[in-house]
Design brief:
Number of strands: 5
Radius of gyration: 16 Å
Distance between the termini: 21 Å
Strand content: 15-25%
Oligomer: single chain
Strand order of the largest sheet: 1-2-3-4-5
Structural class: alpha+beta
Largest sheet: 5 strands, antiparallel
Order of helices and strands: HHEEEEHEHH
Helix content: 25-40%
Length: about 160
């Protein structure tokens, strides 16, 4: 991902008002982000913990942002969920349901879309965890490269659906 400015991020939202974009708090580590290892920028707002943000730049160079809301629904004990973006079944992190308003008139009419995501948006780090070398995965780095491509495709697809 190419480095983004605060101005670009605030202007990128396709489903948030100008006021909502103005109120967002950037991630604490914004100035030290390793942009090379991110397919998208995602974070929870420290001032509004139920609010999350996902910023993505597609292959055409268009940066689009989503305002997300974490649901309050408690999960049944012992149940596991898989993040829709990184799709790793051995996740080292928690997964939760996020909803987002659709863009345009549909969003103004109350239409929303939900998905399961890593609660701290660790997808880019998760797909870079190399699997053990075995007969099924003789080249773990080839697996990582494919996971990175698939994560990019899933994020792009989700944003297009919004």
């Amino acid at each position: 991902m190419q480095p983004l400015t605060e101005k670009t991020i605030r202007a990128s939202f396709i489903n948030a008002s100008r006021q909502e974009a103005k109120k967002l708090t950037l991630p604490e580590n914004f100035n030290s982000l390793d942009w090379e290892s991110l397919e998208y920028l995602g974070w929870r707002d420290p001032k509004m913990p139920q609010r999350g943000y996902m910023i993505y730049t597609n292959t055409a160079g268009e940066t689009r942002g989503l305002l997300l809301r974490a649901t309050d629904g408690a999960r049944k004990g012992g149940s596991a969920a898989m993040c829709e973006m990184c799709r790793d079944v051995t996740l080292p992190c928690a997964v939760g349901m996020f909803t987002t308003r659709r863009s345009g008139q549909a969003g103004r009419d109350g239409d929303t879309l939900g998905t399961l995501l890593c609660t701290r948006f660790e997808c880019s780090a998760n797909v870079r965890i190399a699997p053990p070398k075995d007969p099924i995965n003789p080249d773990p780095m080839a697996v990582v490269a494919q996971r990175i491509i698939q994560l990019d495709e899933r994020v792009d697809s989700f944003i297009q659906r919004v």
